[in-house]
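Reviewer 2 asked us to include a model.

Predict the structure of this chain.
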Amino acid sequence: MKLFRSALMASVLALPLVPSAALAMTPDSVLVVAQNIDDIVAIDPAQAYEFSSGELVTNLYDRLVQYDAEDTTVLAAGLASKWQVDDENRSITFTMQDGATFHSGNPVRPEDVLFSFRRVVALQHNPSFILTQLGWTPENIEEMVTVEGNQVTIRYEGDFSTAFVLNVLASRPASIVDEVAATENEVDGDFGNAWLNRNSAGSGPFRLAAYEPARLVRLEAFPDYFKGGPAIEGIIIQHVAEAATQQLLLETGDVDMARNLTPDQMASIASDTIKVENYPQATVHFLSFNQKVEALTSEAFWEAARYLVDYQGMVDSFLAGQMEVHQAFWPKGFPGALNDTPFTYDPDRAMEILEEAGVELPITVSLDVINSAPFTDIAQSLQATFGEAGINFEILPGTGAQVITKYRERSHEAMLLYWGPDFMDPHSNAKAFAYNSDNSDDNYTATTTWRNAWAVPDEMNRKTMAALAESDPAAREVLYLELQEEVQANSPIVIMFQAERQVAMADTVEGYVNGATSDFVYYRLVTKN
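Predicted model (structure tokens):
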């Protein structure tokens, strides 16, 4: 503990303009965070694909358009001050902000946009698919992204709505990188990739002052940020793997925030100077039934299943602080989410539905589940409540890899899993829960519909693609709400919960923003009073 505290305070005192501080007191101008950050593989926005790295990219870089700290549900101007849409020619022309600069002092130019997109497509790291779905390739990128004066024109292939394209351009790999800085540090044609996995070249509200993998991240405020410099001078994120150690550091005042405490630890905090904030997350948790199993194909069975989940009972007990009841595929907190929760635990209603439909009972169904909390706890609750209606779950625990492999093979019967969007556009989840135009075994598709062998009705398939192409935002939202209602009411996928995140922090901390995904964690508005 003494060694850790010494290292932490040494990191704090390394910040410029930070007054000396006694132990058990963090400086007024620096936010000190205890967090498990050993998931980080890369911090280059062209490669970063982990939760913690997403948080760093968001605070270090900007995009042409982005969801900002002031309101994470509104797509706002970023490095582009305005844009003009040409649906007929499938293009959007962006006018760049005047006066925006990178941390290096270099001006942000349209050429930096082209460079940033070209390097993502050329490097072909994990998140590149988000941009390449626009029809971009290494061969055509300079035709699809063109520069003229203070404008950059983005072209795309496919029947996409403007809203979809803008959401793609607001995603993590669409972050704009300083071409001059990256090129100066290029090695063997890597577009500066190796250097950018230890440094940053962005225009965001913070610049990277130090990064030691699985040890420390230190951010310094960028006072010349085009939207106004951060309210705080610096952020230190100290890697602390053990939740118990995080709690101790918070309670002794050595850190201002603990990001990975368990619900039990949250409940045990007795200090009047510590508060716990709850933030809905984008991940939805569901129970699904493989349509290759004849006994699970009845629509009456699907409907009854919705009344056999003790949603509130689980949330009020072992899922407290981890989940909230949510019954639609698009997460709460995202534009266009359906927040209605029409189903409650009602075994009498479920048995009535099964009896009226002539479903033969009892039946035994194997239920695959990841062998860790809270998944095993949820499975045991489902086993008890479904058993009341004569549906007997045989729980098959396995590692995450084992469970997901069975899911991809369509060799399961029932499956307890979760899903999160790759970027903030409803199509990211609608394609997963409401679309499957080819249900054949040899047409592997990474969706919940195909993996459960559900041949989605043609009308729903058509509506999903119509929503993708719909240019009117209001009409598009209506289509997605209808799709959520249809999947919610009648599908072999029972959506039950949305993940929730709890963060414990000193009561002096204000302005911290933890949106529904790791891309929406913002420190720019943080103050310590």
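The chain is about 30% helix and 20% strand. The longest strand covers residues 274-289. We have added this to the supplementary material.
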